[in-house]
């Protein structure tokens, strides 16, 4: 098989209109793409499988929330302040780069140059390692000393973890410039990725195009819990467009400014993150690049069953582990090569402060290892912050089988003395005292007791007040609870559909050797944009009734077909549909008009069988629904040979 060539694949995707830059007549806009018919069908099939694999299989509650989101929601979620990337500018040309991506690109090219230098002997003795450029021609062969090489490898392994100033230091230390022009770069500055807008004519209500679908799900939590008859755990799910004003989108569909996401929010009791169906997946092996491997600067994942990974606490809990395994099953069902799939754990400084564990499903393509699904345990963060901001309780209330009796240190304030004594400061002091933890109350109690009934409290606003036992009583009290109230934790698998779609295309793309190399996209039948090609041998009118009859029967079976009755040779028509990834082709020839038999060709093997139409339609249905395989069919029926040459 010929070596992978991205330019040829891109040419094919353009020619067959899988997708193309939007508004190209106006010069196009980086990071915006339109999908053509096969791209649309492929995306619809991926989403269909996603719905079946997750929403139906797990009884998830699907919601469709608005894209336009008010400022306050995204301020509360932290996006207004923190949804940023670091950007640098070429101080001469003004060209803009995302700082971490630029460093990654330059260091990878230098390492590639080192490899080339070792293998080719073309080392230029005068070239400095800092001259290595990412020109289209590729890396300049320049040897690196072992310490520099190790340092580059370590930076690359930790590239997602650096702060802006740290990225700036790396740029200076390793003399990183604009790879195309050699221009100097400015210090990194933070750039918020959300598209801002205003809602309504007055312009007073600020809003954003959502950068993820999650917030709508959190804000519907109460209604969803009620819909689920107050039963926990449960998951919501949402498919929809998200928007990110990416600093410098240069990797095709992998980094765009508008994309389809499919997200799940699985709400779980923080005291028990076991999953009732974990046993079903526990023996599935995953390639795990955990944080300890990365902190050693290594990139080789370890292969482990998810059962073992959870048992050894490499993956924090069963629910998170369950979803990692289910994500792998989904991706491989689509046709992603399992050897080019790994799960990378976030390092602690890469993870949001509230998250307790986070893994990315990364898929390898010609762009490197790219995160296609993020899977995070977000603890109770989202529901807590929205609840605090709005005053709406986002909690689960569960009747306890046995009442819970417990003791607690509590504070009682005699308001008749407290109010007049502290007057305008009474409210602030009261809310401070009521917010003290049990341990803080115990400390205050002992301070008061050891100080002759008085103690000084220092408020965060800098004011100090003297409090005493004449109006404060601190002591243990017994409580009986019949209901447990808690804020659920959230486990969030978040899928970027465009990234999965593009990676899948790379994984199933190959070229058939022959007189000329012909491209094939070997999509599994269930995701292939078109399932069956219908080709009359020529445009002879005698074939028309059979074409009409078979196509209408295939449509009745809900099998998406393409009829190709063009005057091209049969071989040319087969190969055009191999490029679309159409797995099966029914051919009508002169024998068909005599005896009612047709042939069925399979895309990857190009093998054909000949049977009566009824039999062939049954076989196609079984194949498309993946109830049988071509191998099984070949074992049962005799091969038919057709000349496919042009
Ligand atoms: N600009 C984008 N273009 C296409 N898909 C994206 C983009 N940004 C994120 N995604 C997809 O959405 C998923 C969830 O988003 P998440 O916020 O976890 O990504 P991220 O960590 O910001 O990604 P990255 O670090 O690559 O920018 C990702 O796994 C990815 O598949």
Layout of helices and strands, plus pairs?
Blueprint: H1 6-15, E1 19-21, E2 33-35, H2 37-56, E3 61-62, E4 68-70, H3 71-76, H4 79-82, E5 84-89, E6 96-98, H5 99-120, H6 146-157, H7 164-173, E7 189-192, E8 196-199, E9 205-209, H8 214-219, H9 221-227, E10 234-243, E11 258-268, H10 278-281, E12 285-289, H11 291-295, E13 302-305, H12 306-311, H13 318-334, E14 341-345, E15 357-365, E16 368-377, H14 381-390, E17 396-413, H15 415-422, H16 426-434, H17 438-450, E18 454-458, E19 464-468, E20 472-486, E21 489-496, H18 497-508, E22 509-512, E23 518-521, E24 532-536, H19 544-556, E25 561-563, H20 570-580, E26 584-588, H21 590-595, E27 597-602, E28 608-612, H22 613-624, H23 630-636, E29 639-640
Parallel strand pairs: 3-10, 12-14, 24-25, 24-26
Antiparallel strand pairs: 1-2, 4-9, 5-6, 5-7, 8-9, 10-11, 11-21, 12-13, 14-15, 15-16, 16-21, 17-20, 18-19, 22-23, 26-27, 27-28, 28-29
The structure holds adenosine-5'-triphosphate (ATP).
Region (Disordered): 114-135
Subunit structure: Homodimer.
InterPro entries: aa-tRNA-synt_IIb, aa-tRNA-synth_II, aa-tRNA-synth_II/BPL/LPL, Anticodon-bd, Anticodon-bd_dom_sf, Gly-tRNA_synthase/POLG2, GlyRS-like_core, tRNA-synt_gly
